[in-house]
Amino acid sequence: MKKQNVQASLNWKLIFILSSIALIRPFLSMSGISEAIGKPFVSITATILITLIWIIVVVLQNEAQPLLTLTFVGIGYGILAIIISGIFSPILTGQLQGPLANPFAIVSVLITNAIWGAIAGAIATAFRKINK
Question: Can you tell me where the transmembrane regions are (predicted)?
């Protein structure tokens, strides 16, 4: 019963919006911007900026469960990135690439992004505790 209350208390609209914001990373790569500027620099910078946005929004929104919220944001981003890859890789390269081409990679993508979200959530939780 308590599990349902936790899930019901999460702001799913915010989770979707923040997950969608992170799609800037694959779009930077697909558009060639990452290659033009420098792949490691663009990827790392985008990741840092997205993480800061996630943390700031969750803290300013005074989310009750920032750790859980941002963990789900990371998972949501992973799902969206897998879908985007499945749609655009055949269009851009002529063949399916990415996690859908290797189903074992799906689990890796989801776990990696859940960890990213959890780290951001832990930072947001720490900021909330400092500001109380």
Answer: 12-28, 40-60, 67-92, 104-127
